[in-house]
Amino acid sequence: MITTHYAAPDGNILINIAFPSATHTLIQQAAQHAGRSPERFLTQAVHHALALHATDESARLNRAVQELLTSTTPAHLLAAVGHALTRDTGAAPC
Questions:
Q1: What residues are paired with 14 via a beta bridge?
Q2: Fewer CB within 10 Å, N or C, the chain?
Q3: For the whole prediction, is pTM greater than 0.70?
């Protein structure tokens, strides 16, 4: 269960997660096996997972663009993307 998150002085987001004791034990064992502290082990695991997600998302988008380009021109695709990105959807900005 994630209980809180807040920005650290260095700008990183700190997350306080309450793990069940069995999960905590597994993390400690995996960290020890990797020769790292549990905190460092989890930090590296989260960074790795986020990087993997970004790589997967980039590849997925590339495949989608290539598929779109089989039936339209780059200029039309670019115009459509520009329109989609500038259209007011009513959603709150990120």
A1: 6
A2: C
A3: no
Residue type, 16: N
Report how far residue 19's alpha carbon sits from residue 1's, in angstroms, rounded to the nearest whole number: 7
Instruction: Write phi, then psi, for 17 (nearest 5 degrees).
Output: -115, 130
Residue 45: how many other CB atoms lie within 10 Å: 15
Cα 94 to the chain's mean position, in Å? Answer: 15
pLDDT-based confidence at 89, cuts 50/70/90? Answer: low
**Relative orientation angle of helices 38-68 and 21-34, to the nearest 10 degrees:** 90
